[in-house]
Amino acid sequence: MSNRSRLFPALALLALLLPFASARAPAGERPAADPAVEARVADLLSRMSLEEKVGQMFLGGWSPQFDDKEIVDGAIGILSNTDEVANVIAADRRARSVRHGIPLIFSRDIIHGYRTLFPMPLGIAATFDEAAMETAALHTAKEGSAQGLDLNLGPMLDLSRDARWGRVVEGPGEDPFLARRFAAAAVRGLKAGGMAATLKHFVGYGAAESGRDYNAVDLSESRLRDLYLPPFKAGIDAGAQVVMAAFNTLNGVPGTANPHTLTEILRGEWGFDGIVMSDWDAVRELVAHGVAADERKAVEKAVMAGVDVDMASGLYRDHLVELVKTGRVPMARIDEAVSRVLRVKFRLGLFEPAEKRRSLDPTTAAAALARPETREAARDVARRSVVLLKNDGNLLPLVAPPKRIAVIGAMAADAGDHMGAWGALGRREEVPLFLDEMRTRLAAKGVTVDYEAACDDACRSTEGFAAAVKTAATADLVVAVLGEPWWMTAESTSRTRLGLPNHQQALLDLMAATGKPVLLVVFAGRPMVLRDVVPKTRAILWAYSPGTMGGAALTDLILGEANPSGRLPMSMPRAVGQVPISYDRLPTGRPWKPGDELATRYVDEEITPLFPFGFGLSYTSFTISPPKLAQGTVRLGDTVSATVTVTNTGTRAGRESVQLYVHDLLASRSRPRRELKAFAMVDLKPGESREVRLEAPVADLGFHDDHGRYRVEPGRFEVFVGADSDTENRAVVTVVE
Ligand code: BGC
Q1: In a 3-state reduction of DSSP, which class is residue 506?
Q2: How confident is the model at residue 488 (pLDDT cuts 50, 70, 90)?
Q3: Cα(712)–Cα(700) distance, rounded to whole angstroms?
Q4: Which of 194, 197, 381, 724 is 20 to 30 A removed from 136 (C-alpha atoms)?
Q5: Distances from the Cα of 688 to the Cαs of 372, 546, 645, 681, in angstroms?
Q6: Residue 206: CB partners within 8 Å, gap ≥ 6?
Q7: Angle 111-453-467 (CA atoms, 0-180°, nearest 5)?
Q8: What is the spatial distance between Cα 727 and Cα 437, in angstroms, rounded to a whole number?
Q9: Is the peptide bond before 155 cis (omega within 30 degrees of 0)?
């Protein structure tokens, strides 16, 4: 008998003696190791066969062909995509009725809402508002959890500075600090709504070369640790229990077979004791990556690198038993992986006499969907997510609207483009269309709203242009709704061109040529190149895919019933040739200087983005006073505390985003010109002033070296506090040992 198995009876006894202490930590906290849970895990493990253990290491998708023999045989641990409550109830009963009665985890991709869709995650990040981020996750989870779901396959935490990558819309944008806040808020919100989070995709997926999905990623250890890992660490510290490995190679090693990231960093350095799952079929993809000769070898590599659960490929079930029997995979590794799955099941409370499912029934589950308060929350978050990029001559809001308005563009009346990719259970008929909202609400003010689609949402033909021009010419204002159709965004939708697709630019040009003022509303899944777009417009509202209530939210903003406060979570480039682009660039040895031909530059374009990270206008105006530091000199364990007075100098109530950036003036490595370290939103009435204090721990001002060691180097740091990443409003703080 090994030492390990000798321990089991003792642990089982302990399990009986200890009252079941719930290991569920409060939202926002990492669960502590719980001896009672560990004892129950060990006891259960000691009674399972190898085949049953391997069964726990499989995530399978539900489909009408799903055979519950898989459950009876104990061949599945996690079941995904059971969209009918009846399926959950049936599968759950089955699982509890067989030997050991190990409950299934029910999972699903609920990327921005289940039935009620919130804005796509990039839009949620654009709120620059942690409370809004948490609210979106909370309602998402409430709808999912009421349908019996336990585990969300999200949030996606992949940073990206490359708008060509279609998945930027699923994530928090380009900045690690914003992404950390987004991660923690999402995990807290999901948990409060009754679901667990899966942090994905570990790691570096958003840095795909040429912005092409699934492509290779090459990152130095310092860049990996300074930028790409922190959001995951923040999610784990907030209590996330599951991590999904990424499809891509990182420095030549596929995410599904990378012991450095999955075991050394995640387990070793961070002490993560939850589940690591592969991405969809990614174990099999190790063969295509060219690192495994065949599927058997792929399984061995994935499991030994630290992948506990195989999503979808089924190859663990096909090969793991034999790999253990032939000594290629040690039993201890299987026990470790299965312990993690069981530990998470205990922590989620799934074993407690069906606690979570007892009350599940199709009628109450249906009543939990599309509830008025959820729709109201989706509308509120959508309003906060929209970024006002331009508003010449205060075209907006339309407080005294003109008599005749032409709405042009198929997206104005296409529910799919409102909802966005990963539409889950979203229903087109539950979407108040932008066109209808404008029509109805403006009719009450005596305004006529005409409409022409002009072309389909991708604008592949110009046939309808003449009619659109005619309609625009008779109106006092043109509201053009253009951008990327929803199906051009998210997974496997990389683009090489970032302008308006197909004939949309030509349509916009024709609208401008009518001489009527043009308000452009953009639905899009990524930053786009707006160089030729901006001059054709008087005002631009950037709306991402705003979700189920997006049409109503946009109308609220246009009519001035709400005031835009969204901020860009990614820099908006001037040209595709600038990407990847981010605000935190290094100075180079030849910083850009006007007229200097040997400075870092392009001969045909500026080096700066068209709109910087953090940018967004309001219908009112604000001033932010120079920052006052609580202490000009701080020690390593202290906090940098900067106070500014924010004043609403305009005539409307509004929200200003205050952002704090630092710049390490002299260090052993070249440091970014700006790094976001804190942000806050402040609501102000016209004429009102308020003091806003932003704090950044000095411990957060450091960086990693080539060996992955983190340090804060004493010295002088510029502290910028302003409304976006280009602010010059600054003070200087000195950090001493
Ligand atoms: C995506 C994941 C997703 C999974 C399951 C994959 O293609 O990369 O983000 O969770 O499918 O739907």
Answers
A1: helix
A2: very high
A3: 8
A4: 724
A5: 33, 30, 10, 14
A6: 158, 159, 160, 161, 162, 165, 167, 168, 171, 228
A7: 165
A8: 37
A9: yes
Q: Which residues are catalytic?
A: 279
Count each helix (H run) and each strand (E run) in the chain, helices first: 23, 27
| Contact between residue 657 and residue 616 where contact means Cβ atoms under 8 Å apart | yes
Residue with tokens 């991708």, as numbered in its chain: 458
Give residue 387 CA to ligand 1 midpoint distance, Å. 28
How does pLDDT run across 196-239, given as a tens digit for each residue?
A: 999 999 999 999 999 999 999 999 999 999 999 999 999 999 99
Which alpha helices (H) appear in 156-202, and where do they start and end?
Answer: 176-192
Ligand 1 atom closest to the CA of 312, numbered from 1: 5
Q: What would the two tokens of residue 482 be?
A: 């253009």
Atom 2, ligand 1: residue with shortest CA distance: 279
Tens of pLDDT, residue by residue over 93-145, are: 999 999 999 999 999 999 999 999 999 999 999 999 999 999 999 999 999 99
Q: Which atom of ligand 1 is nearest to the CA of 81?
A: 12
Best mutation site among 63, 167, 213, 279 for ligand 1 pocket (most ligand atoms within 8 Å of CB): 279
Residue 14 pLDDT exceeds 80 = no
Nearest CA to ligand 1 atom 8: 279
CA dist., res. 339 & res. 345, Å (int): 10
The whole-angstrom separation of Cα 80 and Cα 63 is 9
d(CA 301, CA 306): 9
The residue written with tokens 């008998």 in the block is 1
> Other C-beta atoms within 10 Å of 441: how many?
18
Q: Point out the ligand 1 atom lying closest to the alpha carbon of residue 200.
A: 9
Residue located nearest, by CA, to atom 12 of ligand 1: 109
170 Cα nearest atom in ligand 1:
9
Torsion of CA 722, 723, 724, 728, to 10 degrees: -30
Separation of alpha carbons 600 and 93, rounded Å: 65
Ligand 1 centroid to Cα of residue 548, in Å, is 22
Instruction: Look up residue 728 and give its two tokens.
Output: 């010059």
Question: 20 or 134: whose pLDDT is higher?
Answer: 134
Cα(435) to centroid(ligand 1), Å = 33
Q: Tell me the CA–centroid distance for residue 155 and ligand 1, in Å.
A: 11
C-alpha neighbours within 13 Å on the C-beta side of residue 432: 19
* CA 355 from centroid of its chain's CA atoms: 30
Token duo for residue 448: 């006529």
